[in-house]
Description:
- With about 375 residues, the chain is α/β, with parallel strands linked by helices.
- Helices cover about 50% and strands about 10% of the residues.
- It is built from 16 helices and eight strands.
- An eight-stranded mixed sheet has the order 3-2-1-4-5-6-7-8.
- α4 (about 90-100) links the parallel β4 (about 85) and β5.
Amino acid sequence: MTNIGIIGAGTMGIGIAQVAATNGCKVWVYDANPKQMETATVGLEKTLTKLVDKQKISAETMTEILTNISIATELKDFKDCELIIEAIVENKEIKTKVFTELENHVSESCIIGSNTSSISITSLGAELKKPERFIGIHFFNPAPLMPLVEVIPSLLTDKSLPEKIYNLMKEWGKTPVIAKDIPGFIVNRIARPYYGEALRIVEENIATPDQVDDAMKTLGNFKMGPFELMDLIGVDVNFSVTTTVYKEYFYDPKYKPSLLQQRMSEAKLHGRKTGKGFYDYSEGAEKPVPQKDEVLYDDIFHRILSMLINEAVEAKRLGIASDEDLELAMQKGVNYPKGLLQWGKEIGYDLVSEVLENLYDEYQEDRYRQSPLLRRM
């Protein structure tokens, strides 16, 4: 596949376009907002110029990438594309409207993919005339740097299509994994406790955000603590994904969103992009120095890690992906220091079970129920 279409010129869309163009594909990018297209083009040139300045790519490569990307002014400009990837707002109705219109302009053999992070692939593709051509292709932000791509077939996707996309992503230098079409897929499902349990700890005044972050980094060797990561992702974006997963799982208490995060979103304290979130990013602002507490840190670390391992074990039980892909996804998609199934073996599944049992005894909430497989691990 050498002719690629991208719908949406936001951070993800232009990032995916860069990946495809870097790998020699001819790419057409369309955005309903012409100003966004202009902003994205200028931003891409700046990004590539920095890479040239740092000697990460040559000036010739930069020229080639930019030459490979064309602006599409309407959806009919995608008529020669073999693959189109949508990367627009996380709204099912808007996405579905675009897909149904798109089918009027593309060939019978054109593959249509969505970069959605949490909306059901089956529900998105069901309205198409040819739902068998539709598949989830979920990149992680920033797309040019993050290696993971989740490939998600729907119940209606042609059986040969996942392997085709898997192989294409390999050609593009990515680390693809194949996941079932369940809410959150692999990463956004398994990673929910990293944020949710951290938020609960802070909401209950057990620890401060900087203490939680410090505990996970010092004891778990995570590159970023949950609050630093939420500020980077966008507190509003993280809240939206959590809310979607919660609703899609029929309000399973394991995925219950945080009131603190909702209030932060309402106050537009979205993190780095607004200058303030759980931390202050304004000029001259100093990051708080956490008050270290060995016992508290140990409790925080084992509480959050046990919740994560339990989610990974449940994903294994449900066959959401192979063990190898479950491990790869968390390491390559959110930079976890090691796979969670391996981590469970190292610290002992008995310990994980005990931590969850104690939490359940304390809270009497189904949120802390153990995967049936955990006790047998």
